[in-house]
Structures are given as structure tokens and as C-alpha cells.
């Protein structure tokens, strides 16, 4: 049996603007996804997904036929059908990058998550990373021909350290970022109990003039560089507040603090798709209690969630 593992991700700076080449800071989470691959019946992929509780949340079979991947579906639920369609798309892309792996071969593949797939920590990116490791193909090419996106999550999936990520004319570029803030005990993450469809925000972002987007990329890149080097909590909070203001204007959405937590005394920073998944906040136990009183009970200390 072969085993592969990739890390989940959080994007600290650069959401939306990363698509246009802004330098962004992303961090790998200690929670991720494992993939186990065994030889199986020829020309058949028997796929099983196991969640963080040990329960099977997804199961399907795929018949391999000369580069075609036909779903043998036993479940007609819309969510299952959507996942099967995505999986089929990924395998078609993988076949184009390494057809030999599928020549008269069959596999039993099991994926094991150790985070709740609703959290937005990277169910898809960790899957792409694991498949690329197994098939010895370029994960960015597999991402580009399947899900799409900037690729920052792929960079983080294979890193044990924070990364500075940027889309360049020559493709994705990532470097280890020396980001290990001395004030990390004052940072924590809160799950907002909802998934966010960010299509509308992305659409508004793309309506910005080229000049405005170029100026935003330059400003966000500068903030990212300063955030990585920041040595004091007050400086860190000031930089991220400026970041929130810039993105808020670009996507025409109020800051999450304005929207939900106006009376919170310290910093709140949206992560990824605004209004959903996780936020980052500054504070300690009293501030965590603020969120618990409002029904937000999935809270992680920085050192608890980040590698």
C-alpha cells in the first residue's frame, strides 16, 4: 500500500488579489488529508472517502476505458453526483499528464480527512496534491486543468512552513516565509459556522479597472512583506486592518467585523472567501469567550492549528 499526505491551508494575506499576482502569505495547517492506494481490479477505481470521525462520507466506483473514466454510480444524491463529476474531471486531467499509470491498472483508493470538510481548509487542494504525489505529475498543472485557482493552496499542501506565494508571468512562485510571530499566543482562529460562495465577490473584484487592480496588487504585496517581518502585535494589527479596508473596497463587501462583530475590541481578519469559513482574531481567553457567547465554538489557538 502507498500512502501520501498533504496539509490544509489558511490564507493570511492576499485573498482575491492573489489571482492578479499579489504577493500573499499562506500557512499550512496541522490538519490535512491522507490518501492510501492499493492495487485493485484492472481498469477499475474503487474510491472511498473517510471523514475526521472515521465515517465513510463518499464512495464510488470509476471504470477506466482508454482515457475515459465512467462513473458507476450507486447514489443519485445531488451532492454525490457533483463530487463524482469533479473526480471524473480530475482523473481525465491526470490521465493526460500520466496515461501509463492507468494502462490496464486498477486501484483501491481511500482518502482520510482529519478536519471537517465544511471548514474550507482544503479538501480539494489536499486531494490534488496527494494525487500528484502518487502519479508523479505537476500538481499545478493538475489544478489548472481541473479546479483552477491561483495555486497558493497547492504550495502550502506540500510545505511544512509558511509560504510567500505569488503568480508570476512564469507561473506560480512560492518560497518559505520566515513567519513565526513572537505574538502568536495572541492569535486565534474562529470558524463562522457557514460556507461562503465567493463568486459574487470575485465578479465584483474583476469589474475593477486594470489600473485599480494593479494598484491593489502593489499595496497588498507591500502589506504582505511587512506582515511577514512584523515583530509587534500592534504593527501586525495595523497592517491587517489596512488590508481589510483595501479588500473591502475592491469586492464591495463590508468587513466581517463591521458585519457581525462591531463591538469586538481587537482585530478581526477575514481569511479566504469573505464572510465564510475561518476568521483570524487577536486576543486571549476573554476574547475567545466573546465568540463562544455568540455561538461560535470552533476556535483554535494559532499554535494548535498552524504547523
From TrEMBL:
Database matches in InterPro entries: GHMP_GYDIA-like, Ribosomal_Su5_D2-typ_SF, Ribsml_uS5_D2-typ_fold_subgr
TM ranges: none
Keyword Kinase appears in the UniProt entry: yes
Keywords: Kinase, Transferase
Tagged with keyword Hydrolase: no
GO MF terms, alphabetically ordered: kinase activity
NCBIfam families: GHMP_GYDIA (NF040656)
Name of the protein: GYDIA family GHMP kinase
Taxonomic source organism: Christiangramia lutea
Source taxonomy: Bacteria, Pseudomonadati, Bacteroidota, Flavobacteriia, Flavobacteriales
